[in-house]
Amino acid sequence: MPPLIVPIADTKGFSLNTSGVTGFFGGEEAITAMTTVHLYRGRRWLGWYNSPGSYTVAKELGRISKSRLWDSLFPGPNDDPFKLDVKTGPKYVASCSATVMQQTGHIAHLLMQETDNLMPHPLIGSRMTCGTKVSVVVIDDTRFQYSNLDLQPMSIYHTVLASFPILISLSACILSALAADWYCFAIILLGIISNGVTCFVIGSSGDFRIEGGEKPPTGSSSGDGVFVTQNGKDIVILKGSVWGVSIITKGRFSVRLDGGPEYRTIGLCSLLLEAQFLLQLILIPQGSLFGQIMFLTSIITSWVYNSFLQSLDKEKIQRKLLFDAIGLDSKAIFSCEVGTRAAMAAFACFVLCEDLPRPLIGIELMKILRELSAMHKTPVWQKWGEQVVAQVEKEEDEMSILQPENVDMSGLKSSEQELLAALLKDANDAYKGIEW
Questions:
Q1: In which element (H, E) is residue 91 found?
Q2: What is the pLDDT of residues 132-177, one digit of tens each?
Q3: What angle do CA 97, 353, 244 make, to 5 degrees?
Q4: Continuous segment of H or E residues that includes residue 58
Q5: Per-residue pLDDT tens for 228-266?
Q6: How far apart are CA 333 and CA 112, in angstroms?
Q7: Residue 208 to residues 1, 199, 423: CA-CA distances in angstroms?
Q8: What CA–CA distance (Å, rounded) separates 269 from 195?
């Protein structure tokens, strides 16, 4: 059958020879694009385009499959290719046990990012030396939804953009056939099928969920505590049960795929992608210049779209999924600005203990104060800490004792007395801020 479209003239013996490069080119972008099938509802249906990086994607996905056969075909560690948990969270100080976690997980990082976006209310009467931000988050684990998270649908804008690589890949495939370039036609068609099938299989066989350990027995102590940023300037007070807080501090997003432990379907998709890569090496150099241009056009367009998917703010999507899963509205997070680290530490102790029965049992308030305020081992700071602890342990309806006249200042220099008076005023402002 003669070609219906006359190929470019005077190209005999000329070849672009891009077949080897396209198996590796755009691999990272293609893997990132593949992970978005678990972040957007309906994304699994929009993978029908000739994507670059087939060898890289095959190598990454093939490691999910676990058996002697798959391990021999795709050697290497069985790492998570979706990379949903890549960030670490801040230090966490538990109030009851005074346990200090120097590093928390990705979900804690997401929570801290959400509080960073909030506009704090100024704490009334607080003197200002180094403005610090304090946020209070209350976790209700009875509202948690851990599995089958409710993904948001792709917007019309994203859907229209997704149609471009699909339409261009299909057009390139048809034009290659009309030019009677069956080699390039077959390879473009194989690329469309292999990427489309892989997206559909990965998106259909996974349960996107939050994992955070087993639920503790009824009656366990509260898991209240404080997140502290690396510079110690901002904190987030977390209140809730041990399990609820554990989800935030140790939880992680994960995809529980069907078909385990071997995951043969995913292994077959990886084989299909590798076959695409090998056939590209053989057949694309046999095609005409016109067919090679069509092939390259589809690859470049798909790479641009994959780069767009890579540029999306995935953490913003994950934050919305997290807040929906734990039933938390960002508007319900209280955030205020205090002027000193002493006021910040006192405020945290008051909030952590305001709902606890007196006398307080098992709470090391002095250790919390030291962690948050970097208090020195001097008589001034020691007296201040003792006074704050005494105020926290008082009944709720009793008057504040955070005044200089309530503290024995004998033995302190005048400059130390002034410092202690200022620190007590900071703590008293923090105490009033609780009521406000």
A1: strand 91-94
A2: 888 888 887 766 777 677 777 888 888 899 999 999 999 999 999 9
A3: 60
A4: helix 54-62
A5: 887 777 889 988 888 888 888 888 888 878 777 788 888
A6: 11
A7: 50, 15, 48
A8: 9
Are 363 and 356 a contacting pair, CB within 8 Å? yes
Angle 319-320-326 from CA coordinates, rounded to 5°: 90
- Cβ atoms of residues 107 and 89 within 8 Å: yes
Both tokens of 155, joined, read 């917007």
DSSP designation for 241:
B
CA–CA distance, 243 with 212 (Å, rounded to integer): 8
Q: pTM of the predicted model, to two decimals?
A: 0.81
Q: What count of residues does the chain have?
A: 436
What is the spatial distance between Cα 162 and Cα 298, in angstroms, rounded to a whole number?
13
CA distance 29 to 100: 38
DSSP reduced 3-state for 295: helix
Instruction: Answer whether residue 345 shows pLDDT above 80.
Output: yes
Instruction: Determine the Cα angle at 139 with ends 133 and 144, to 5°.
Output: 140
Query: Tokens at residue 131, please?
Result: 């403005």
Query: What's the first-to-final CA gap in the chain, in angstroms?
Result: 84
Secondary structure of residue 246 in the 3-state scheme: helix
Cα–Cα distances in angstroms (integers) from residue 250 to residues 89, 115, 233, in the given order: 9, 18, 23
Residue 82 tokens read as 């979706």
